[in-house]
Amino acid sequence: MRSPPDKRAASRSPGGYNNGWGLPPAVGVYLLVDKEKITLFHLIADPDIGYALDQYLAWALVGIGGLVFFGGFCGCCGAIRENRCLLVTYFIFLFLIMGSELAVGILSVIFQNKTLTRLGELSTLLKEEYGIDGQITEAFDFTQTKFNCCGIFGPQDYEGSAWMTQDLGKGDAVAKTCCILSNGDHLDPKPLNSSWCQSDKPTESSQFRHEEGCLHKLEDFLRDITILFVAIGCGAAALEIFGMIFSICLCKEV
Questions:
Q1: pLDDT tens readout for residues 5-45
Q2: Cα dihedral 37, 38, 42, 48 sign
Q3: How far from chain centre, in Å, is Cα 196?
Q4: Assuming Cys at both sites, which of 28, 86, 87, 219 could form a disulfide with 251, CB separation 3.0 to 4.6 Å?
């Protein structure tokens, strides 16, 4: 007659090691639904696929959440029922999760380098699409308001742009979001002094206009996202090693 399940084994259920597993999918969901991140991703989206490469990594983290759920279920059931097959399955899930999380961390560095090389092309995007494409226009306006900058390399990016040649700015030299605002709203910008902001005299415009380009600010944003992916991917993968060791030890005791 088979003995009842060992309560000590149940108390050592892998579920006790799952406290940090919800972090990767939570971060993935955050990056996919946060409005600010989505708006900034529009600027660095790959023109061929329509999405930023980092958004695919965010989806990958959400997918890892599914592996975590099934792996944790197998681990808990295997420990409670003292079933070696389920514990081995749990080990396999941990191995797949660890590999996936490491891949996310490594790919984030590769994707960062690819995206950084394209940031300089945003100046051309501004000249061709600002004021014409609503999504791109909002992304530039939000970037300029959030980071207190103007253009990609500076206010001169607006010279010769479609926005200026088609008089979409109604005589303005730069977008209103390039000005120092009184409200900080990129959708309804209210410059402190619109006439001086749009002045062609540097002594006047420099007091009420942001003169720094947004290039370095966007580079910092990309690096922060990469650090987040590396920390989540590699950090969570390190935790899986402890879970794998635990599953092996528990499997030997069964």
A1: 444 444 444 544 444 556 788 888 999 999 999 999 999 88
A2: positive
A3: 37
A4: 87
**Nearest CA-CA partner of 143 in 156, 130, 159, 128:** 130
Q: Which two tokens stand for residue 28?
A: 């993935």
Distance of CA 46 to the CA centre of its chain: 14
Q: Which residue has the higher pLDDT, 161 or 84?
A: 161
Tokens representing 12?
């050592």
Q: What is the DSSP letter of 3?
A: P
The whole model's pTM is what?
0.81
Q: Are 102 and 240 in contact (CB under 8 A)?
A: no
Count CB neighbours of 166 within 10 A.
Answer: 10
What share of the chain in percent tops pLDDT 90?
47
Helices (H), 119-150: 122-129, 134-147
Q: Where are the alpha helices (DSSP H) in 148-214?
A: 162-165, 194-197, 202-208
* pLDDT confidence of residue 5: 46
Sorted by where each begins, the domain ranges of the chain are 123-216
Annotate 116-132 with b (16+ C-beta within 10 A) or e (fewer). Answer: beebeebbebbbebbbe
Residue 102 in contact with residue 111, Cβ under 8 Å?
no
Q: Cα(141)–Cα(110) distance, rounded to whole angstroms?
A: 28
Average pLDDT, the chain: 85
C-alpha to C-alpha distance for 215 and 198, rounded to whole angstroms: 22
**How many distinct helices (H) and strands (E) make up the chain?**
11, 0
